[in-house]
Amino acid sequence: MTSISDFEVNKLPILILIKNLVKYSKKFLTKTFLFFNIFLILNIFSIIINHNGVHAQGKMSSIDPFVITGIKVDVTDKTADLARKKALRIAESQAFLALLRRLTMRIDHDKLPVLSKDEISGYLQEFNILTEKNSKTRYIAEFLFKFKANDIRLLLRDSELDFTETISKTSLILPVYSLAGAVALWDNPNPWREAWSNFIKNDNFYTQGLIPLVLAKGDLKDLATISAEVAVKGDKKSLIGIANKYGIKTTLVAIGRLSFDPKGNRFFDVNIIKYNKKGSQSILSHRETSKKNIKISEMIGASVKRVYRELNETWKRSHLLQFDKTGVLGVSLPIKNLEDWVTVNRRISRIPVVEKIQVVLFSKHLIRLKMQFIGHISKLKSALILEDIKLSKKDGDWYISSIKNDSEIKTK
Q1: C-beta of residue 327 within 8 angstroms of C-beta of residue 377
Q2: How far is CA 90 from CA 141, 160, 398, in A?
Q3: Mind listing the pLDDT tens digit for each residue in 318-339?
Q4: Nearest to 144 by CA among 206, 65, 70
Q5: Which pTM was predicted?
Q6: Backbone CA torsion sign across 206, 211, 217, 218
């Protein structure tokens, strides 16, 4: 069975070939012939990347939008073999439904296509058995499934369903718990932080989302960097400091306030504030209610799921793919070496709204490309920024600059 990471391994020989060509050919070839050969190899490399990974998510997230994991089944039948076969079909169906729900808006979930088990199998690319146990008649297992990206896209488009496959950049979450005027972040008890920890570690609902989160550890350096009071105040220096510690650009301060009414009913009010270099923004508020016979931990756990669901819905709504609009940009990419081109090409090829990248001219310090994309230019901007590429306009020309290494790409 093919490993999910095979493509990452298979493209290494191409990079080695390019480097060796540059290293050894300079002695024997003219510059024109050398760059012509490199141009051909880069075109082949570009085709492979576009074919295998145009819509794949790279290092910005551990989530592949077309991979569903954590599917657990427990099946009993006449024999263990029959139970295993039945379990696989059941798990396939569950994973397929989870995938469609991940990519589409919740308002459209009752419109999702209903397929037979045989039809669902046709959309499956591969699967892995993460854990399994069996007896003579019982089979228990946990599966990971990877589905065929292009086939899933066509299915959703044919079903006239809006969808997105864009993964958010990872955010750092700081759950601040408020009770009777006191606030806690690192201190115990903090059932709000504990609920987020359990959710991220153990809940399959989280693994099927599009927003990866990191919960701050609460180690000595975290305690020295920020406190609950400082987080509530929104101190910019401290929030940037804690984000930098985890190599993350966005911090979500999640303030959860527990209160009671005279009848003993409980209320849990949540306010999520987003902080980054651009400033702060309140992005979500809601109230969870429960009667006194419901455990506080259960109420807070339900609130975590609701918050995460609403964050996902907001994200999907702003990143829906717009197939009714298309565009083409002529792109000039200044490079210092071949690795600059490989890096930029890899970043752009991971963006779902970019359908095709074509090399039209190659020279020593400049590569000209055609980039075909779907949706409005504003959607392209948002998608590029997720790969650390900034699109801006100057003197009538469009420029794309790498935020990390400041290399520029001029678009005409």
Answers
A1: yes
A2: 11, 26, 50
A3: 999 888 778 888 777 777 788 8
A4: 70
A5: 0.75
A6: negative
